[in-house]
Amino acid sequence: MDKNANNNQDSANSLEKLKLLAEAAHLLNSTIEYEELMKNVLQLVRRAVNAEAAIVFRYDPAFEDLRIRFYSGDDEPHQLTIPLGKGFVGWVAEHNEPIMTNAPLEDSHYSPEIAELRGGALRSILCYPLLLRGKFFGVVEAINKRDGEFDQSDLETLDVLSDQIALAINNALLYRTSRRQALQRKTLFEVSKHLMSSLNLDEVLHNILVALGRVVDFEAGGIYLIEDKTGDVESITSLGYKAAKESNLHLKIGDGIVGSVARTGEAEIIPDVRNDSRYIDARSATRSEIVVPVMSDGKMVGVLNLENDEVDAFSDEDLEILSTFASQAAISIERARMHKYILEQKKIEEQLSIARAIQGTFLPKKVPEIKGYDIWGANIPSGEVGGDYYDFIRIVDNQLGIAIADVSGKGIPAALIMASVRASLIAEIRNNYAIRSICQKVNNLLCESLEPENFVTAIYGVLDTKNSIFTFSNCGHNPGIILRADGTVEELTEGGLILGIRPNSKYEERPVYINPGDILCLYTDGVTEAENSQGEQFEETRILDILKKYNSLSSTEIGNKTIKAVGTFADEKYSMDDLTLIIVKRL
User: Are 59 and 138 in contact (CB under 8 A)?
Assistant: First the structure.
């Protein structure tokens, strides 16, 4: 009777195992999706040995730990990480042998830290190694037998299931890898076409981040463009950051993990940013980060940064994908940058062209013809829109206003200031104010309208052609020169401060008599500050040498000789300033 009972029990057990194998085969082959399969594996283990919970630890040779899927049956699987070689699982992983204990708290393999990760009281544990073609692949663990203690039959059950579980997980991993690679290739191809079709830099950067989201899981990311000269972050395109934290994204080379990669040019994977003091808190939920440099022809173009809310979320495979994206992105970024630069330059050129045309209307169309005087003036721009100004202004019969001015800076801002100087000067002249009053009023107007770093130097005077008297005021400008017919030299320095820096400044005026044969010369610093290859400046003495040497020539010839001398003197590498020159010669 006992023998028959045993036979019946063996038959029942065999039948149960066959049913379990059939059920396992069905469950494990029902899906090839990795996450769904892992959930099925955990359910299968729990039911097969009647455990409260189950854990699958998958070993990845690229990491010194075991990746975990933990499932208690009450909710979705949790993901954890446990160091290799620690606790029951670590011992099984090292020795490839199972452990079964119904008194885990008293076992030498017990680890309080790992037990805490599992949560709940431990009554019994059954760990079994997963082998794939003889190689260690992972560990499956059943926790807390529901109706008593784990026994030999439970161990045998896991022995029967382990090969199927390992094979099913491996197939799912291979499928996931294959599908991911196919998606990556397809995405890279599509991204390449899409990026090459766009020349808008902001659009290109946004598209790169959106495309990355199809092949790499991340909660937030950014592309940081590096300014080549300063090393500062020039611009940022980002996804997933709160507006309040976006100020933390701006940094310099060397600051934070992104700045560190920008400095070294070496990609980094940060498993847990909480353990890295370089991390700049732009997202409190971030746990792991991957940062890749974007290089073009060996030059740092920018940095690509992705963040994930899970610890150790990024792999070497992700790094390879990002590096490939970064190479493609570099080409597109450089194309878009160049296109943007060309458009900006074109826009600037258009603006400069308009400004030059406007500036041209401010300068005299022709020099005045006055009996007994030979007058000439010229402005030679440096190439940009300059801030030099000169003018001949008819006031009344026998009175000619002569003005020369130099606005600080260049370009359109200087031209606008010059326009303001000219307009206010002419307005005050028409009110018939004295020269000193005109200078004071123009100064006050400029003090109200100019920024602190802007100013104007000028000489304004009136030539009384009937009495041959030139009455002037020098507002911080280069001294005017009178070369007398007898060879003596007189400088025109009287006046007051530079215009636009101190309101209510007082200015004095001084009359000088112009004798027959005298030459009056007014100029801007573009003449005297021109430098040769030795760093020497042209200076006033060379102007005087030209005036003395060619004093018998016409004012036009003297002026042209001076401009030619400056051009010959200046070094080829010297960036020429505007040249403005006025020559008045009494016949």
Answer: yes
CB-hemisphere CA count at 13 Å for 566? 28
Tell me the mean pLDDT in the region 303-315.
Answer: 88
State how far the Cα of 100 lies from the Cα of 486, in Å rounded to an integer.
120
Give Cα 10 distance to the centre of its chain: 73
The answer to the question of residue 234 being in a domain is yes
Range of the domain at 220: 198-339
143 vs 55: CA distance, rounded Å: 8
| Confidence check: pLDDT of 85 > 80 | no
The span from the CA of 29 to the CA of 164, in Å, is: 10
Residue linked to tokens 């990746």:
67
433 secondary structure, DSSP code: -
**Residue 166's CATH number:** 3.30.450.40
Q: Give the global pTM.
A: 0.50
Query: What phi-psi label fits residue 468: left (phi over 0), alpha (psi between -120 and 50 degrees) or beta?
Result: left
Is residue 442 a contact partner of residue 425, using CB atoms and an 8 Å limit? yes
Q: Is 345 inside any structural domain?
A: no
Return d(Cα 78, Cα 66) in angstroms, integer.
Answer: 14
Considering only CA atoms, which of 66, 49, 67, 77 is closest in space to residue 142? 49
